[in-house]
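Page 37, continued from 36.
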């Protein structure tokens, strides 16, 4: 089944026998044919019907074919316009073609097969123009959609950038606060590796060894202390304390699970001098 919309053709000629000839010639063609004997009636038909192709005689009383087609072009610019004319009028018709009033002119008397072929080409041209306009509108809509997507993406990027900036500022503030703690402190990972040391912890030595990022906590503390810390590492409790001696000074070592937005990220070990 053909899904292409049925096309419409309007023929305008003041000679009724010409219109009758056109009706006989085109009655079996795949389009609806309308006729009018003057330009005014032709314009009335166009106002009430969606006409795709107009074929008009040139010499008509009151309104010439060129004048009629010029009005058609002004009001219905997508409609294809063909003018029927005689040999003696070719020069004036060419000027009208150059001005865009007429798509093509055909000479009288016409050849039936040629006329049918020209009508077919004109309707194909109409379809092509409509397709081109449809594609243009589609591309314009897609471009507008893409523009909105880019704008949304730009806003998302700005938002994400701002969030990253705030996170970086928070991390920097956290680092400053950590470094400025009045007690020795270390960040410890789940595999018991030292991953962060503050200034106070950098001053301490156990058996002559300074705390170093990348070393295991067990490299510095006794098995007893590590056994005390084990329930924290295994998430059984949130913190544990052990008393240790560093360079003759007693410290309370407290291992705690990180909380808040750092929950699950590791542990913090604080070493606080015990008063004598």
């Amino acid at each position: 089944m053909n899904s292409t919309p049925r096309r419409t053709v309007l023929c305008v000629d003041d000679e009724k026998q010409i219109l009758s000839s056109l009706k006989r010639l085109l009655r079996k063609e795949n389009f609806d044919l309308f006729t009018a004997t003057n330009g005014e009636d032709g314009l009335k038909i166009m106002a009430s019907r969606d006409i795709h192709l107009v074929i008009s005689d040139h010499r008509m009383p009151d309104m010439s074919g060129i004048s009629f087609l010029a009005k058609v072009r002004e009001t219905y610019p997508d409609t294809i316009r063909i003018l029927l004319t005689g040999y003696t009028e070719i020069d004036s018709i060419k000027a009208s073609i150059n001005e865009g009033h007429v798509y093509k002119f055909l000479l009288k008397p016409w050849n039936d097969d040629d006329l049918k072929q020209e009508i077919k080409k004109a309707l194909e041209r109409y379809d092509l123009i409509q397709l081109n306009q449809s594609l243009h509108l589609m591309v314009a809509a897609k471009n507008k959609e893409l523009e909105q997507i880019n704008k949304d993406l730009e806003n998302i990027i700005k938002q994400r950038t701002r969030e990253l900036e705030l996170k970086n500022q928070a991390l920097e503030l956290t680092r400053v606060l950590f470094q400025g703690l009045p007690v020795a402190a270390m960040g410890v990972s789940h595999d018991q590796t030292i991953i962060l040391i503050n200034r106070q912890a950098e001053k301490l030595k156990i058996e002559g060894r300074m705390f170093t990022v990348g070393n295991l906590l067990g490299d510095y503390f006794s098995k007893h202390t590590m056994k005390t810390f084990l329930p924290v590492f295994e998430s059984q409790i949130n913190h544990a304390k052990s008393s240790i001696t560093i360079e003759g000074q007693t410290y309370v070592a407290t291992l705690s699970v990180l909380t808040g937005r750092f929950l699950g990220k590791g542990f913090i070990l604080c070493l606080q001098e015990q008063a004598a």
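The mean pLDDT is 88. Flag for discussion at group meeting. DSSP finds seven helices and twelve strands in the chain.
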